[in-house]
Each structure stands twice: as C-alpha cells, then as structure tokens.
C-alpha cells in the first residue's frame, strides 16, 4: 500500500510500504477514508524537532474496519471509526480517569508498542490499530461524505480545542480569549461557544481566519498582538481581563499573550505543543491567582459527546478544512500548511 | 500604645507607637483582641527576605470596633471583627470576582495606602483599618473566649488552606495529598475534609503534627519525603497518584513533592509563599495534564462561609494554636515558631 514518510525537514514522500496485517488479538485493520496534516507535524517538517531516520507520519484519520483480531469485542467489520491521535487500552487507571494520553499501555501512531512492534501512522491507505477496543470509536451508522471532515476533527483538533476550554474552566457566561487562529484555535472557539461562553475574543491577524472565527462563534476579533492586543481585549471586556484564555499555539509569545490576557483569578487552558520555550512564571501566577492547566489532550474520552454534536449538526468543526488533496500529494499538503495557505489540509487515499 | 516591629533578622521588638486615629471616612478603629505570627513572618525574621528599616509587622488579627469613620456603613461600634490578611475595597471588579487580593485599591498591613499614608500592622494593641466596609467581617454576636482561636484562623490560615483545596478542585470523593504540616497544611486538611475528600494523606514527619493532622481529618500519614514519600502515597492510593495535591510550604522541594504525588489529569493547589525558587516544569505538566492553581489566598471572600462553620462547630481550625503569649512576648513567639516548637502562636494584647 501507499503511505507517507518524513525523511528529513521538508522531505515528505509517499511510498510503497508493506500492507498492514493483524498481528495481535486486539488489533483492527482499518482502511483509511480520510487523514490530515497536524500543526504538530510541521515541527519535524520545519526541522524544529529532529528527524533521525525516515519514518511514517500522521496521527489523525478516520476509516472503515476491514478485519478484526479475535479479542476485539466493541467493533465489527464495516464500522466507520474515528482514531484519536493517541492509542490507549481504555481499561487502566488513567484511562478510567479520562486521561487516555497517560494510558499505562499507551502508544503513538508511527511509534512502537511495548514489545517494539512498529505501529502504523495515519497518512496512508490503511492502518493496523492495536488496542482497537480502547482506541477506536465507531459511528452509529456509515456517515455521509459531507460528515467526513467534521468526524476527522474528532481525531485531534476538535477534542484538543475542547480540552483547552475545559482546562480553562469555560462555563456559561464566561468571557474567553482564544490565542491562535489555526485549526485548534478555531475548534477552541467552537468549544467555548458550546460550553456557554458569553464573549469569545479571537486573536487573529488574517482576514480569512478572522472570518472563520466569527462564523464559528467568536463575538470579537483582536488583530493586535503583544501588549496592544492585551489592552484591546481588556478594553472589550470592560477593563478586567478574561475569565479564561485558551492557548492554542505553543510558543513563548502565545503563552505570554494568554497569561497577560487573563484576569486575576482566571484560568489559562493550554494545548499548544510547546516548541518555543514556553514558561510558567510562578510569581505572576501566585500574585494574580491565575490557574493553568491543559496539555496533551485526552481526546479519546471526548469523542462520544462531541460525536453526537457533530452528527446532529450542533457543531461544524469540519469547516477548519479548507484544502483537500489526494494522499499522493502529501508533500503539497505539508507545504500548504507550512506556508499558511491552508488552515488544515485533508488527505484522501 | 504598644505594637510589634521588626528591626532586622531575629530582632523583633514590642515598642511604644502613636495611638491610631480615624484618618479617612472609611476607616475603623479596632482594638485587637488576638493576633498571631504567620509562617510568612518568618521569612524576614530568618533574613530570607530583606528588612531595610524597622517596620510594623503582623497581618492576622481579630478585635472589637471602637470608632468608625463617617462613611462606614456595614459595621457598628462594639462589633467583633475578623481582619483578613489583605485590605480590599470590596467593590472593584476583582473584588466582585472574589479575588480580593487583586483589589484595585488593595493594600497590606504594615504597608501604605495609595496616598502614602502608613497602615498599621496586626501585632499591636489597636489598628486603624482603611476600607473597613470592604475589609472587615463582623461576627453576628460577641463570641465566647473559646471561639477566639478559630475566628483568628479566618484571618489567614484557614482561608488559605481552603484556597489550596478549592484551587486543586477537591470535591466529594477526592483523593488528596497535603504537603506541609504547619498551620496552613493542617487547615488544608480541614478544608479537604469539609469539601468531601474521601482520602486525605498528610505528609508529616513530626509526631505531634501527625496526631493533629489525624484529628483534623487526615486518613493517612506519610512520614517519608522525596521519591519515597511519593511512592508511599501512590501505594496508599492503589498505584495511581492523588486527584489533588495541596502545596502548603512554598519551597522548591515541597512543590516538587506536590507535583510528583499528583496523578495525570490531577490538580495541584499551591498556597505556600514561594521563598525557595519553586518552579513549574511546563513539559511535565503538559505531558501529564496536571493543572496548577492557587496563590495569595483571597480569604476575604471565604470568611462568611467558613465563619458559619466555625461558629457551628462544624470545623475547629483554632486547634492549630498550640501556644499563647502576651503581646509583650512577641520575640518569644517568633522564636517558638522559628524553632518549630509551636505550630502557631497567638499573641494577646
């Protein structure tokens, strides 16, 4: 079959790889219907994180179950499934606490299981899914083509935006600032609105992303950055900072922006992958009673609730996809994301 | 009148100072019934923070209103009042959000108001209280002598322990680790129990403090520190860390202990005054989804609820006082606290 590998910074190739096969009784074989490129895939693409040898890449996909190991009990052949960006057994103490990303037997797409067996990545034609019962979530029916984009966001960005909002304690009536206008930031806006936020300020400088943010639920847009952006947001909020700031970028500057925009006693929810030396200034946090929380979003636990809202049309996170390419054009997909010509690019095998 | 001043590390003196007088229409004049020494008073006492010139000290007291400025509307002469450790106007946006320690007009005992007018400190015979309506809380009746200790804890330590528990999200059924067996740590145990925690592990090495912790609600005591202490706590909790850890010391080691004792997805509430270079390791927080929150406790807002529970006998935080001395022996009170001969020392003018 065909799958995407990263060989080095800016060297993405779609190549022939062995067809996946059931290797464990808990495995599922999934034919990929749609995959996509994540903002975090751009760190190795840009050379921010090192690529020491060519490896499979991609951790967001949806597909159809083609074959099941003998011990899989919650899925059947032909099911349409959503794969969260982390694998989990669903039964350990951390999974039961809803923190599937800390699963005692957890693993990552493109990595290895505990016994050193390689795990496929998502940007390919098919995937062997270990711990399929714990990892995959099946939709009640085969979805329409029009639902694919929305369902694919449940692999990562919609659940990640939701995690930012939950971690920041967004609740009915909250005043929220969202830092980051990428796919996660846009989904954080959806999540904040879904949780009842009254005021949602999107910090964004790009006209197309500003427009999308407004469509998805932002009540205000602030184009300024740094101190000017904070001052403008505070002005919009009547002179007091935000109850909740959602940090959806992962740089030192974006974290500072989120902290500065938050009122005393407020909360910052962060989900940006920190690739820029983000710090938490403990003295500021203590003097202003700002809480911080978040991290690698345990999206597996969020899928059932969010799935219901996607299927009912209550939320439409699929709108973050503004480019769709065939799998063979994965290199072009990375370039489009890297050059910010695309908010989020879908790959279709 | 007589009041306590710090001149230099380990140089505490009780001296004659001018009698306080009403200076502003919002002032109250309060005769101090009881004051006490705070763990944070030990930082200048020990020379950890600098004392550049002699100044009044003490920020926890209860007393009786002797005189009121013309604009004070919520108090009357003869009221028994509790003074929280920070002054606040009670009307600004931050006070209305319950974050009185970030009051737009806030001030500190022993400091100055916005116009440079000195503010009395608490370890003396009487105190001029600016912003009396916003700052002071009156009890419904004149309390019995037996209630003084419990009421005095509402100035700081009981509200601070409560803040740690709230900041860590303690709720019915929570498994809680409390780091610190001083007065704040003991009050954090009371607060965790009051909020419905199921398991409360006190980390304490001192027999008398272990006994008090058990009396106040600790279900378990762990005497080990560092990795051994974390391992022991985790063992008690069935192999998963605490839902909530309450950091009530303020050193680098105690913060690390609290973080290490917390399960993925759990929360650390910190109220220790950081005098030892505490840090928040962002990568650990992100990978394990541990939230952190807390800071300078806005105890003013907590007093009404906690007061009701003290008066009803539902909680008995006054037990943290194990030594009572006349005001004139303030130097001995500091020495007793510094040498850990006393958990908390009351001073009676």
Q: Would you mind describing this structure in some detail?
A:
The structure is a homodimer of 349-residue chains. In chain A, strand 14 (242-247), helix 9 (252-260) and strand 15 form a beta-alpha-beta unit. In chain A, the strands form four sheets. In chain A, strands 3, 5, 6, 9, 10, 17 and 18 form a seven-stranded mixed β-sheet that branches. Chain A has a six-stranded parallel β-sheet with strand order 13-12-11-14-15-16, sandwiched between helices. Chain A has helices spanning 42-46, 93-96, 132-135, 148-153, 157-167, 183-194, 207-216, 226-236, 252-260, 282-288, 299-312, 330-338, and strands at 2-8, 11-16, 28-36, 55-56, 61-68, 80-83, 86-87, 107-108, 126-129, 137-138, 175-179, 199-203, 220-222, 242-247, 262-270, 291-294, 323-326, 345-348. Chain A is an alpha/beta fold.
């Amino acid at each position: 079959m065909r799958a995407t590998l990263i060989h080095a910074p800016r060297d993405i190739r779609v190549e022939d790889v062995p067809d996946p096969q059931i290797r464990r009784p808990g495995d599922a074989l999934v034919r990929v219907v749609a995959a996509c490129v994540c903002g975090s895939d751009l760190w190795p693409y840009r050379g921010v994180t090192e690529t020491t040898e060519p490896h499979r890449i991609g951790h967001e996909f949806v597909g159809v179950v083609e074959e099941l190991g003998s011990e899989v009990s919650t899925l059947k052949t032909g099911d349409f499934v959503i794969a969260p960006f982390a694998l989990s057994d669903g039964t350990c103490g951390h999974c039961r606490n809803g923190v599937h990303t800390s699963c005692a037997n957890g693993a990552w797409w493109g990595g290895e299981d505990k016994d050193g067996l390689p795990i496929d990545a998502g940007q390919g034609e098919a995937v062997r899914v270990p711990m399929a019962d714990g990892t995959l979530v099946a939709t009640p029916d085969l979805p329409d083509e029009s639902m694919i984009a929305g369902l694919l966001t449940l692999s990562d960005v919609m659940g990640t935006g939701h995690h930012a909002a939950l971690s920041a304690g967004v609740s009915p009536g909250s005043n929220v600032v969202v830092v980051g206008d990428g796919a996660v930031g846009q989904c954080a806006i959806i999540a904040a609105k879904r949780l009842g936020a009254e005021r949602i300020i999107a910090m964004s400088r790009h006209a197309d992303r500003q427009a999308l943010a407004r469509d998805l639920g932002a009540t205000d847009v602030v184009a300024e950055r740094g101190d000017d952006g904070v001052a403008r947001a505070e002005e919009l909020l009547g002179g007091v900072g935000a109850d909740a700031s959602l940090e959806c970028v992962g740089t030192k500057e974006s974290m500072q922006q989120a902290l500065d925009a938050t009122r005393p006693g407020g909360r910052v929810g962060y989900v940006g992958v920190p690739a820029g030396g983000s710090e938490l200034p403990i003295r500021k946090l203590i003097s202003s009673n700002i809480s911080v929380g978040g991290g690698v979003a345990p999206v597996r636990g969020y899928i059932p609730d969010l799935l219901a809202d996607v299927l009912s049309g209550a939320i439409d996170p699929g709108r973050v996809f503004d480019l769709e390419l065939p799998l063979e054009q994965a290199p072009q997909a990375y370039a489009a994301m890297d050059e910010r010509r695309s908010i989020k690019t879908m790959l279709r095998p």
